[in-house]
Amino acid sequence: MNTRFGGLPNPKEAQSIWDDIWHLEAHHSTALEGNTLVLREVQALLDQGRAVGAKPLGEYNEVRGYADAARWVYGQALEPDGWHDGRLLTLSEVRQVHHTAMTPVWDVAPHKDATDHEGPGCFREHDIRPFSGGMTPPAWPLVPVRMQQWVDEVCQVGQRLSTGEQPDRPLTEELARLHNEFERVHPFLDGNGRTGRLVLNLILVRLGHPPVVIFKRQRDAYLTALQRADTGDYGALGELIARAMYDNLNRFIVPNVAGPARLVPLAALVSEDFTLPALRQAAQRGRLDAVQGPDGVWRSSRKAVTAYQDNKHKRRRSAG
């Protein structure tokens, strides 16, 4: 996509769309790991800094840390800084993602078995028990070498793609293989799932693709797909990634091609007149004709926003 279409718009060019993805990713990726904040609580936390509800402090910090890491990933993928050496990925970036995501929750609820050398951004110094599907991560002394090998594999894929050479399997299955290999190494004592999905998005966005969001309702399918990938079958996981890429690609494309009556995410309808929070509030209050999908995202149309704007102006004139 970078070569053919110039890549994705950066967060400054399409802030509302990136913000919408950011909210969804922070909510669903932490919910996959058991976080109980609902989407509106995540939005209040990230947009207003308000801890709505009576959840444990660690849960708010978990979402906050993930959101900070996701923001860093989006920016680092599109406008890399000193952590980047020009290749598709560096080991320092992987560790920075983990450090950013895990530090807030670690500050209030560190892993009970962690040594002083196993904090955020540091590889584990414990062996991991076999998982329910039978997969056993490598012994901890092997983790640094295995992670460097994994990063080198990622960069080799990036190098082949940059020269026009296609990978041995469809791209989404190749990404599924890389994601699964990361989880098989399980390099950190905690936070491997969150870090793995964040790093996958760093790779995707750097390749010019949209980040993916695995929804909490897909948890069972996602875990089953990872288990199948352990056996070398990357099809199911690749399909999950492909569908998630397609969904978020539409967030960027549909607003530019949709007719006035086509339902699109509210983020695509933001303008100088209406911010995303204002549209969301109008939808929740029933003043804007909108529907909320099973993914928690409100959708409306340009036609509905125009009608809402006209009615708003009429109310103001009547009040005057």
From TrEMBL:
Pfam family, one: Fic
Site (Important for autoinhibition of adenylyltransferase activity): 33
Entries under InterPro entries matching the protein: Fido, Fido-like_dom_sf, Fido_containing
Occurrences of domain Fido (ranges): 89-243
Sample GO molecular function, one term: ATP binding
Keyword terms: ATP-binding, Nucleotide-binding
Active-site residues per Swiss-Prot or TrEMBL entry: 186
Keyword Acetylation: no
ATP-binding as UniProt keyword: yes
UniProt-listed SUPFAM superfamilies: Fic-like
UniProt: ATP binding residues: 190-197
PANTHER family: FIDO DOMAIN-CONTAINING PROTEIN, FIDO DOMAIN-CONTAINING PROTEIN DDB_G0283145
Name assigned to this protein: Fic family protein
Species: Crossiella cryophila
